[in-house]
């Protein structure tokens, strides 16, 4: 075990050691993904209380054994409609969805072209599948086109993977270009909409308008939808295939029915949340406009607002300074991001007030 001790000591020496911080209820939270405040929505919480009384809690088994229920079918039908796909299958988390889908659908005869900044679960799923991986420069579609032109024909199936809204840089994929490249190179297209689902009209994600051309849409419920689990929007054929081949689906205990009931109620509520979405984007514009007056490196175009530093020490100092002023905005460090581009990431939500956003900028002001 000595090698573990050595590695931990090295992490601590380089300020890269991480632990699980306790939630600071007293501070203003800017590291939460609860973009619309649904995790504490009274109507949804009442739904859960009633579901616990009716169903109990644990699901008792996997979906292929004792853990299935009619509520799952209801949820998946609503998910398919939200994503603009013919069908959907619900996994226990976004991570399990990504590794399960990719490892089930691909093998060593296939190839994947993934954005350089795709989530770790996507890269791990590709590794499990044994498919060949080419990573194109972030949002560089000329580079993607070049890689496809050079390598696509050497493999049986090709899958292009990107994210609708990137969690670390706060920028969006160009769906139109991705769909064009998919058609041009006879490939499949998979989009992870973890951070965009719920934020657009009717609660849709950034891939909805192109759903007909996107073969797989991953929609985790742990961000704007305030819950847990993840839908995979797909064809009926792919859904059946995943039920039979996706190990993370087959060998996992099903989510508790109160969680599924919450998710159903959440989808029913989403279309009525125009006020919350308007407030989120209003807060985002307000915050970004204020930051533009400061001498800071700010990335992205969404409610995910990263402020980047070349030195990790500066990132940690910024986060600590904010914490001392009552603001929770945790540092993002390697291996999540490049050592020369560490950052403090702000997640702007609908429930933030303008005065809270102003207070943050006052702390950040040189």
Folded structure, characterized:
This protein is α/β, with parallel strands linked by helices and 366 residues long. It has two domains: 14-40 and 273-364, Aspartate Aminotransferase, domain 1; 42-271, Type I PLP-dependent aspartate aminotransferase-like (Major domain) (Aspartate Aminotransferase, domain 2, 3-Layer(aba) Sandwich). The protein contains 13 helices and 13 strands. The strands form three sheets. The chain has a seven-stranded mixed beta sheet, with helices on both faces. A four-stranded antiparallel beta sheet has the order 9-10-13-12, covered by helices on one side. Helix 2 (42-55) packs antiparallel against helix 10 (257-269), helix 3 (70-83) runs parallel beside helix 10 (257-269) and helix 11 runs parallel beside helix 13. It is globular. The termini are far apart.
Brief digest:
The chain has helices at 2-13, 42-55, 70-83, 94-105, 120-129, 141-151, 175-184, 236-245, 247-250, 257-269, 274-291, 312-324, 354-364, and strands at 28-29, 87-91, 111-115, 132-136, 158-163, 188-192, 216-220, 230-234, 297-298, 304-309, 327-328, 331-332, 342-347. The chain contains 13 helices and 13 strands. It is α/β, with parallel strands linked by helices.
